[in-house]
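User: I'm writing a tutorial on reading structure tokens. Could you give me a worked example: one chain, its sequence, then its tokens, then a sentence or two explaining what the tokens reveal?
Assistant: Sure. Here is the example chain.
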Amino acid sequence: VSVCLVPALAEEGSQELLRQLRVDWPSASGGSALPDTISALKRALGQSPWAAACEQGPGTAALPEDVVCKVHLKSFVEQQGLVGYDPNLGVLLVTERKLRSLAELQQAVLQCRVSDAAVLPASGFPGTGSCCGILHVVSCEEEFQQQQLDLLWRILDPGAHTALQKHLICGPVKVTNPSSPIGADQYFQLRKRQMHEASVMKYGELAQDEAWTEVIDTLTVAAIRFEMLSTAHRSQITLDLEDSSISTKGTKSGAFVMYNCARLATLFDTYQRAVERGTYPPLPPASELNFSCLREEGEWLLLFNYLLPFPEVLQQAAQLPPPSKGIRITANTEMVCKFLIQLSMDFSSYYNRVHVLGEPFPHLFDQMFARLRLLGAVRDMFHSALATLHLPPLSQI
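And here are its predicted structure tokens:
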């Protein structure tokens, strides 16, 4: 893993919400190591040429009690030749709180280990390959403050890893006609309740069984991730919190994608059970199949519109700019979301028209085998695309 995501300042309770969303977000352990890290940062401040004591002269405004010193960020940026930082960055008053935030980031980075140093240059992060790259994911309102932490970190820890910092800036999240302010945890619980109610409406009492808890949790996470990641991260997201905005089969939702992924799993599970009963023969190798049996327009659409261009979609979605282009990067998650939604719509249309598992007559097996191989590739593509969004495929709904 070559990239470590680090937040600005974690809110209380956010770790539990991240766990519910199944986001593996690095955080400081908060143990005895944190005070030692803060002490080390203070010693580094005392030795830094960019730091100076805060002199309280007559007629000057009183400084906050927890101010440690001041650091000349602008001079550091100019001397180091760094590009992409806000030109208004000047003198930073270093407080105990900022040092604690920095210590938490440093502790989080120490938890990350690079499994293959060779992947670092290819990832778009410069450096020696001896440590992970750091990606600050931050809201547009907090970008200035996070750049301050970035530069303070570079000054106090001029090691390799602090040179690999990049920033991913996220636009604001708005809610249509909110009756009252809503927080992230309330939003998650609302979507979970809506997904449960939609599942009960479609599947009846089965959706209230304990075995469905994991399925509904996964569908909720998928719905939220698609709702958030289908919009370019720099743009504003507008959330519609009405019950009608969540559906198990709405063609614009993450649940719809998961539903079609589960349909493929059910298809191959049904085929495998039929093979075990002796109804169908096992699926031959692809080299022995006659793919000229695939004459449906939907089959060629799946091949040319999805299977062949899929590697390019992944490459464009994860492409990072060269290091010389500044500190901001772009992650085109919306490309993967839109690709998966359109794929689900076209696959669903094809699957509703065509009977893949037909009568067990030998003269029909060539076409069935070719279709199974094609849909096996589609299933693998679903799994790979969902993996980029850290979503597990569902085996049934």
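What the tokens reveal: The domain at 184-389 is CATH 1.10.730.10 (Isoleucyl-tRNA Synthetase; Domain 1). The chain has two domains: 12-115+131-170, 184-389.
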